[in-house]
Amino acid sequence: MTTFSDLGLSEDVLRAIQDAGYTTPTPIQEQAIPYVLMMRDVLGCAQTGTGKTASFVLPMIEILASGRARARMPRSLILEPTRELAAQVAENFEKYGKYHPLNMALLIGGETMDEQIRKLDRGVDVLIATPGRMIDLHERGKIMLNDIKIFVIDEADRMLDMGFIPDIEKIAGLLPQMRQTLFFSATMPPEIRKLADKFLSNPKTVTVAPPASTGENVTQIFVEISANDWQKREALRFLIRRENVQNAFIFCNRKRDVATLHKSLKKHGFNAGALHGDMEQSDRTATLDAFKRGEITFLVCSDVAARGLDVAGMSHVFNFDVPFNAEDYVHRIGRTARAGKSGTAYTLVTPEDIKLVTAIESLIKKQITRERLTGLPTEPPPKYGNKKNAPHNRSQNAHSHKRDHHRNSTQRESAPNNPPSNRISAATETADDLPAFLRRPVTAGKTSV
User: Do domains 4-207 and 218-381+398-438 have the same CATH topology?
Assistant: First the structure.
């Protein structure tokens, strides 16, 4: 069995790896690290959760250990599509580079430029940035890129989805021709392959999983419900109560739905937070940190959280909405079953989602188990929002209060994560049981795919 000491890393880097609790490299690390240390260009394709970040962070620390950066002239540049991913890469450098005196700067939007500029003025060995802030500071004359030795493009397919490719091409045009380029992507569509051919010179290709494949340790289930929004929220609450959920991402397609679902979960007593792209960076960081510390159990989010974010021991992923892009499904469910652990991913499916469901199964080349929930209410319980539903007098109101108090006292031990009443039932379906919109040949029972 290969160990990190077999990969050519120094004692200081090995000591930091040991301090972090790792002993054996993942397949992407085992294959990529030697090539990076040889100063070869690398094209890496690996699904999320495979340790891809460390496959370039560890050898970069080794390479940059010798030499010093000059003011406003960083020695390496790592581009990330989101602020969260950039911050996570920075955490990796801090963790694995603690025995090396490397200077690092994180250039992301939503933060004041003043401190970022001060770090650049002191000289930076490792520059981690999102494309927009990178271009902004360069156009202001605060940074020069003609001393870049290592250029890393991470999550390239996500860059493509977010429209960052023109920015990346512009940044690449500012870099020296003589440089080492590391290009990583979870999927490899033709557009990404074409981009890699443009940036890389005679690269070594490292592929540790088929493009657009899902983790083998993820149990995937499509849960069939109607299109009613109330029923979707009720179904989600039922699944959460039924499952032994340690922590979970809950994905919505739209930011407004993130806010609505977050409010609903809080109202029903669940320990939930929200994360989406319109939040202030300080709020996003605080929410994500609280989730990682276990202070928040359920994080309702848009796809801003789907790529690369590593939360230890993630037990579940719930897709409240089927993603519009089939590849986003792969990245969403990749938040669970990381580092060899097992996990479960539920997706709520309505009749309107048939094309999206077909696209997902076509992409991953697997058929996903269906489950039907029956007994869901068709509408929320009545509220005292009008005279029709309101108590007629004080005595009736007092009587209702006493009745509700008695009911609550008998059910007080039923926490949000405990099984609900029997009004909702679940059944795993065979092909013959399925409605027309989901009728595909499937195997009864939950399956790990």
Answer: yes
The string of pLDDT tens digits covering residues 289-336 is: 899 999 999 999 988 765 667 787 899 999 999 999 888 898 899 889
Say whether domain 4-207 belongs to CATH 3.40.50.300: yes
CA distances from 199 to 45, 60, 78, 189, 345 (A): 15, 19, 14, 16, 36
Residue 148, amino acid: I
CA dihedral 219, 418, 241, 256 (to 10 degrees): -140
Global confidence as pTM = 0.69
Q: How far is CA 413 from CA 106, 187, 224, 408, 409, in A?
A: 47, 46, 30, 9, 8
Rg (CA), the chain: 25
275: helix, strand or coil:
strand
Pairing outcome for strands 150-153 and 76-79 = parallel
CATH of 218-381+398-438, one of 3.40.50.300, 3.40.50.720, 3.30.565.10, 1.20.1290.10: 3.40.50.300
Burial class (CB in 10 A: 0-12, 13-18, 19+), 111: middle
